[in-house]
Amino acid sequence: MSTAALDAPGAALAAPPGSAEGRRLGRAAGRSALPLRRLATRAGALGLGLLAWHLAASHRLDLGPVTFRNVPAPAEVARAAWSLAQSPKLGAHVGASLARVLGGFLAALVAGIGLGLAIGRSRLAGDLLLPPLEVLRPIPAVAWIPLAILMFPSSEASMVFITFTGALFPILLNTVHGAEAASPRLVASARSLGAGRAAILREVVVPAALPSMVTGAAIGMGTAWFCLVTAEMISGQYGIGYFTWESYTLQNYDDIVVGMLLIGLLGMGSSVAVRALGRLAMPWTRGGRA
């Protein structure tokens, strides 16, 4: 059978149902339809969320401890978003936040992976580094703001530092977990073949830890946005967090929701980009997901 015939839409029907070729074509057809079904499901979930928001805000629902009397409806937020999109301030706010997040996240990526590999593969490094890091890990981003202002000469550096602290620990802990989970048999096999410590780290430990590293990086990116917005609310002059806080002080409730949605979209897009880059770095993990 020719390649063109196999690629034709009716090839799965033409192949014998019980043959290996028929099963392969059936699986390929199922995989091609899967993204459309998932896209429709996700679009439907977003639509239901918008509908619930519209009904609650338009009817000014009062559900006891939660009230929607002052919450703007989706149409009002859409008008405010369109007004912001036409303003030159949007580029300045988004650009400032992206630069701060990217700077802090990249620094956290380098430090988290380096420290995580050292702690995960060396008992001495774990004994020396893990206790102080575990003491620092529960400290929230808000608590770091006064000290960051004292430590750094500029507010920009202090905000990047707060973003760094937020992204560091998810990357660090996931890297430690991935490095510890590297197969001892593979390590012993590589050592028996003459591989040194650097080669074992590069060829065995890092590939085994990469899935955990990517997961930690995706989580760290989301945490970085959370911490950055907290910092911008207090010491920023531009940025999405500053825009949201300023809208609250001016009682522009529509803009508050616009700022929240911008934070959510930028955080989601950043995490998706991190996962996509992770899949490119791990071609052996690609496969059909349900």
Automatic annotation (TrEMBL):
Source domain of life is: Bacteria
User: Membrane topology type, per the record?
Assistant: Multi-pass membrane protein
Query: What are the residue boundaries of the ABC transmembrane type-1 domain, all occurrences included?
Result: 94-274
> Where in this protein does the record put region Disordered?
1-24
- Stretches that traverse the bilayer: 98-120, 256-277
Q: Where is the composition biased (Low complexity)?
A: 1-20
**Keyword annotations from UniProtKB, A to Z:** Cell membrane, Membrane, Transmembrane, Transmembrane helix, Transport
Keyword DNA repair recorded:
no
Q: Which PROSITE patterns match?
A: ABC_TM1
Family in the record = Belongs to the binding-protein-dependent transport system permease family.
The protein in question is named: ABC transporter permease
The species is: Methylobacterium planeticum
